[in-house]
Amino acid sequence: MLPDDAPAEESFRSWLLRHVGASAAEAILGLIFIATFDHDPGRLSAAFARERLRRALSGGVRYVVGGWSTLVGLLAERAASLGVQIQTRTRVPALPAGQTILATSLATARQLTGDRSLAWPSARVATFDLGLRADAGPGWFRVMDLDDRIYAARYSVADPTLAPPGHELIQVAAACSPRERKTDAERRVQRLLDQSWPGWRAAMRWQRSCVRTHCTGAIDLPGTTWRDRPAIRRGSPLAVATDQSAAPGLLAEAAITAAQLAVQQLLVPSSDAVPAPIRLTNTRPTMYGLSCRQPVRSGLATVGSPRDYPFQLHREGAHCHDVLGYGAPPPWKGFPLARWRYCAVALGAGRRVLGTPDR
Ligand SMILES: Cc1cc2nc3c(=O)[nH]c(=O)nc-3n(C[C@H](O)[C@H](O)[C@H](O)COP(=O)(O)OP(=O)(O)OC[C@H]3O[C@@H](n4cnc5c(N)ncnc54)[C@H](O)[C@@H]3O)c2cc1C
User: Fold this and answer.
1) How far, in Å, from the CA of 171 to the mean position of ligand 1?
2) pLDDT tens, residue by residue, 25-36
3) Which of 22, 33, 91, 323 could form a disulfide with 149 if both were Cys (CB 3.0 to 4.6 A apart)?
4) Which region holds residue 229: left if phi is over 0, alpha if psi is between -120 and 50, else beta?
5) How far is the CA of 8 from the centre of ligand 1 (A)?
6) 97 and 225 share a domain?
């Protein structure tokens, strides 16, 4: 029914409305919140949300016995067997010296480095964990409110080790708009549970809840793709690998791919290393970093060989978006050019421009 490809420039809602009726579009938006955690998936890039929809519908879910901690435990075991020293329950207070991969959240990496370009949109979600007596359990495994963007599942049905004997674990995720209060999200969830499991209040033995931001990976807004997210390589000897970094994949996959790329990039000999995007001393801090629209036809000159530097010089503003002025005087000759994603290139009237190659 829906084409496989969708444009990154268009919003998911307007793209959907070109292919299906309004009520079908709203139902699809309600469904895709589960794979994006976003309160309004219609605002996301059509390419991003279409791919999430494809992945969400492409197969069943595998529940690992013990949940994430089983996966983390196995990874830690394997790392330790390779000689890695792991220190837990310790916060790194400052950026360590030497080769470093920061695999925290993007927000923490921003704090540790002071680099404000380490920022990208993510969803806001309220999560509720409920421990309930099993004898009064409902008949369902999961229940969704597509209009209200709530997903609840009785995970202890798939994995009984998650709750003590005679008990159930229900986990609920409710997408929140930027200003929704936790108590309001709580009320929405309680309404859904009242409708789907009338006895849940009497059966409840334990609960916890919180509102989380920047914990459910990146979301790409129209006009952006994962390639526009903060680069992993930040200049020798630092790499930042998070689930909001410039890496493909769904949710945690992006974090895993980012980590693999970070290792590969730090292993690149320094002569071939990818310099970090040049730190701009700009007067408009919110316009930090940019990329060029491709293909570029009216550049001033081609830089390097097409293989090494598949860029062209641009006049500021021509075929670019988010172009920054850079206060340094010409000539630009000798200005460092980076391979791969970043390229500090052209100037016009004493201004330098940072650009990127083809998407
Ligand atoms: C409710 C919910 C459901 C989800 N469901 C799924 C799902 O079904 N599938 C999926 O693929 N993804 C899912 N995700 C997303 C997934 O959890 C994340 O994408 C993934 O955990 C990101 O991994 P990460 O290692 O990049 O970051 P994190 O898991 O956030 O790990 C970063 C680590 O850095 C540590 N840290 C932070 N600051 C410091 C410091 N100063 N010093 C030392 N350590 C520090 C933190 O304590 C943390 O342990 C879900 C997320 C949520 C919130």
Assistant:
1) 17
2) 999 999 999 999
3) 33
4) beta
5) 26
6) yes
Written as six digits, the tokens of 56 are 């969400």
Is residue 284 domain-shared with residue 138, that is, in the same domain?
Answer: no
Spatial CB neighbours of 39, under 8 Å, sequence gap ≥ 6: 33, 123, 124, 149, 175, 176, 177, 180
To test the pocket of ligand 1, the residue of 95, 129, 215 to mutate (highest count of ligand atoms within 8 Å of its CB) is 215
Q: Is residue 335 part of a domain?
A: yes
Which CATH number covers residue 214? Answer: 3.90.660.20
d(CA 233, CA 240): 7
Name the one residue in this structure whose structure tokens are 């595998």: 62
Task: Say yes or no: 225 and 193 in one domain.
Answer: no
Q: In this structure, are residues 123 and 38 in contact, taking their beta carbons and an 8 Å threshold?
A: yes
CB 347 within 8 A of CB 341: no
Separation between Cα atoms, residue 15 and residue 357, nearest integer Å: 27
Which residues does ligand 1 sit against, CB inside 6 Å?
Answer: 91-92, 103-105, 108, 127, 173, 212, 215-217, 242-243, 251-252, 255
List the beta bridge partners of residue 167.
Answer: 133
- The answer to whether residues 130 and 183 belong to one domain is yes
Enumerate the β-bridge partners of residue 293: none
**Tens-place pLDDT, residues 125-184:** 999 999 999 887 788 999 999 999 999 999 999 999 999 999 999 999 999 999 999 999
> 214 is in which domain, residue-wise?
122-218
Nearest CA to ligand 1 atom 50: 216
**Do 181 and 296 fall into the same domain?**
no
Q: Is 72 domain-assigned?
A: no
Beta carbons within 8 Å of 249's beta carbon, 6+ residues apart = 256, 257
